[in-house]
Amino acid sequence: QVQLVESGGGLVQPGGSLRLSCAASGFHLDYYAIGWFRQAPGKEREGVSCFSTTDGSTYYADSVKGRFTISRDNAKNTVYLQMNSLKPEDTGVYYCARNPHVPIPERQWDHLNDYDYWGQGTPVTVSS
Asked: What is the mean pLDDT of residues 81-101?
């Protein structure tokens, strides 16, 4: 059974850091890409970052470049999103999802419909 479980969200002050985890089970990361998405209240879900584990490619939304880093731990079958210099506009529910269409063209990494399994989300609030 395929499962993705996010954790690590919480309340943080502007300028602070959080590390989100996406633990995968029922499949191995070697054969898929994993994306991070977020959804702020009243807004559409948007792509944050993607790790194409088949070729090691990483992609980031312009709004998080230089502040967020995506990585993985093979032994734990887990993908991480390190978020630094957080801003209030980073607030939202963060989801990880699996993409079987690998390798992913750079222009398509944030296409929601290409992802087949989603986690339940972990909330992130950036506020003073």
From this structure: 97
